[in-house]
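EI: anyone free to look at a 368-residue chain?
SC: sure, send it
EI:
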Amino acid sequence: MSITKKSTVKSVALAVGLGLIALPALSACGSSDADSGSGSGGSKTVTLVSHDSWAVSKSVLAAFEKQSGYKVRVLEDGDAGQAVNKAILTKDNPQGDVFFGVDNTLLSRALDNGLFQSYEAKGSDLVLPEYRVDRDKHRVTPIDTGDICVNYDKAYFSKHKLTPPSSFDDLIKPEYKNLLVTENASASSPGLGFLLGTAAKYGDDGWQDYWKKLKANGVKVVDGWEQAYNEEFSGSAGGKKAKGDRPLVVSYASSPPAEVIYADPKPTTAPTGVATGTCFRQVEYAGLLSNAENAKGGKALLDFMLTKTFQDDMPLNMFVYPVREAAQVPPEFTKYGPQAKNPETLDPAKIADNRDDWVKSWTSLVLK
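SC: here you go
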């Protein structure tokens, strides 16, 4: 999970503020005079537009650049929701060639607005069937998956001799009043995913009543994942430093492994846990932008993102699960952040038909 990543997805590795090598954000894209070319692929630079959690190992990226002859530039453009909206607004004169990080919660918006052109990436036949979409037109390529879930601070619940919540129903109980922080569903990918999880759980007739109860129980809403996880949440390394006071946060099932892997000294157990009954399955996609200047380079980059080399490298950089068959999953994921066995899901058509109305209603219910 673009976790998200990912965020959006947001990359949970950012929460610990240590060790991750990420490509630099660029304030401006487009080729320089030295490497400019036409849409036929003359440019030797290919530009990737992404949310701000894109990351890849230097050695893996260098191998692609050497093999393909393309230099990769990255434009990181905020939270996933913000990045998608900006890409749509600039689609006639796009900032780059490939967009990475649109997920299943926002996919229909991107497709309906003509953001992508058709291209079936090499290796698409090796993507696990449950993650394949748009099979007739091939406008997007599945890249990663993850689960949006409530995380809890183990130390807080141990200190207060309180059992951590395990389900959506638990979150509205009095004992968890004023403990949860989530992200704005109108601007944040995990925030929207959490909203969709409640819509899947309680249905068209029940999710609004649930959120009324959640609001009455003191849920706090902030703009995005960075603030929620890295400032407000008491269980993360960043949150501890910022003196966060919320022991429950909407994040990812892969957040606990990051807290272990990037800690120094490394703990024997994860300091955070996952409320497994609050998970919503997220899938992130990449696509060739409709008016890409360097379409040939963009296609090469999409092919690269489905190689086993990239898919194996991705989990410990963006803290998401690969979508390619037989790709490697780090043992830390299995031990500290396994995928939810029964996550909430929604049909993409259901999301497309209702997302905007749900977000509008949610905003009226929760923010006003």
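EI: The first strand starts at residue 45 and ends at 50.
SC: 👍
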